[in-house]
Amino acid sequence: MVFFTCNICGESVKKPSVEKHYQTRCRGKDKNVSCMDCLKDFYGEEYVAHTKCISEAQKYANQNQSFVAKESRNKNAQKQESWMDIIRAILDSSEYNLTPALRTAFQRLQSVDNVPRKKAKFENFVGNCMRMPRQQATQVWDILEKELNKMKEAKQVELARAKAAKEASQNGKAEKKNGTTEVESEAEAEAPPKKKSKVALEAEAAPEASEGSSNDFDWPTQLAKIVSKQADGIFLEKLKKKLLKKYSKHVAVDELSEKQAKKFHKRFNKQLKLCATLRLDGDLVKSC
């Protein structure tokens, strides 16, 4: 809610009460108010368009350069501001051919910050708070609903256009990538096969040989042997590290490949569950 200060008598006035104030307290005077938050002066009917002002955080941020104001995340305030945009769009449009009575009604709505966005609540609000006749309230709502639907359709068209542009861009990139891949594939197909060197063949054979020897690793015996040395049990991760050293030594490598490490972890978990002489107590592995 925006508050103003009357520059004639100094009284604080809510925005919806400005008109009443100049009909009673400052009757016969020219309207001259200033916003209590941004301190901006408004003359005549200029205050009507001032529907939203700076927050306290932004106000203090202007006074203190080291203070950083956070953006407001009030969704209701954003929806209400969008509702006010619709009212302003109707007043600016020549499509609806507003009668003087309807134009006055929309101008009065423009000065209110809490206009309901549902038909029943809207009609009750304008009838009780603004003394608007029921028939006129229905006419105002029909125009609001028509403008709202028009804005929704325009937004859907814009979203569809943006989606189509995005898909076209993605398809273009995919076609370009596929074209490059086809050229590379053709070049590879035309190129004669490369002969593998003796060193490369030996390197390929080494993992196969080491994996084959891993089948001879005595998992139950090695697990039980490591755990038996710890009277109070051994932590699961520590047990895994100790067994990993023995496993690496068994397959004759300093460090396991990614495939070998994955196979080790899988076999470790399986063998630990199958081992009848061991039990898992939380993070500790103990002998039965």
Automatic annotation (TrEMBL):
Region (Disordered): 162-217
PROSITE patterns recorded: ZF_C2HC_LYAR
Skewed-composition ranges (Low complexity): 200-214
Primary residence: nucleus
This protein's GO CC annotations: nucleolus
Domain of life: Eukaryota
Domain Zinc finger C2H2 LYAR-type: 33-60
Localization terms from the record: Nucleus
Keywords: Coiled coil, Metal-binding, Nucleus, Repeat, Zinc, Zinc-finger
An example molecular function term from Gene Ontology annotations: DNA binding
Pfam families: zf-LYAR
GO biological process terms, semicolon-separated: negative regulation of transcription by RNA polymerase II; rRNA processing
Protein name: Zinc finger C2H2 LYAR-type domain-containing protein
